[in-house]
Specification:
Blueprint: H1 2-20, E1 42-52, E2 55-58, E3 63-66, E4 69-70, H2 81-92, E5 96-100, E6 112-118, E7 121-122, H3 123-129, E8 134-135, H4 145-158
Parallel strand pairs: 3-6
Antiparallel strand pairs: 1-2, 1-5, 2-3, 4-8, 5-6, 6-7
């Protein structure tokens, strides 16, 4: 019974839609199979400058702070800051990156908080895996906390 009513309703909907030649696209409330997040939480941008190992500037002029990890600071001349910055530069500078939001929009300095990807490379992961970054998760942005901790242990064990 319900199936019959559904088919009649759907048929009428198609008939009247085709008469008016208008198609309405409704955004899906379900996660995107590509990004794993709800539409609107993933953006793409070109990296125009690398500040250090965990901060970049994109073509809109916005500063992006990588989520879930921390690298030595260039401003205070911390050990290995230059190396971490150079690795980050090689991974992202001049490239189109995918920026994925977790929960928070910005940090206390006004930088956008995002996970960063270049093609299939999860940049945050790479920096932790090779020992350039240490895990530093700040709730509520903890989606990859366990993965980062495993990669940090791998980096320590690998020397």
């Amino acid at each position: 019974m319900f199936l019959g009513l559904y088919l009649i309703f759907f048929g009428l909907l198609i008939y009247y839609s085709s008469k008016n030649k208008t198609i309405q696209i409704i955004p899906s409330p379900f996660p995107s199979p590509i990004s794993g997040t709800v539409e609107g939480q993933v953006t793409y941008a070109k990296v125009v400058r690398v500040i250090d190992g965990d901060t970049i500037i994109i073509d809109t002029g916005q500063h992006i702070r990588y989520i879930g990890m921390n690298t030595p600071e260039m401003e205070t001349f911390e050990c290995y800051a230059t190396e971490a910055s150079e690795i980050n530069r090689e991974l992202v500078l001049g490239k189109i990156v995918k920026l994925k939001k977790d929960v928070s929009e910005t940090d206390k300095y006004g930088r956008l908080l995002r996970y960063v990807y270049v093609d299939d490379t999860f940049v945050d992961d790479e920096l932790v895996r090779d020992g350039s970054a240490k895990v530093e998760t700040v709730p509520p942005d903890v989606e990859y906390k366990d993965e980062f901790l495993q990669l940090e242990n791998y980096a320590k064990e690998s020397g």
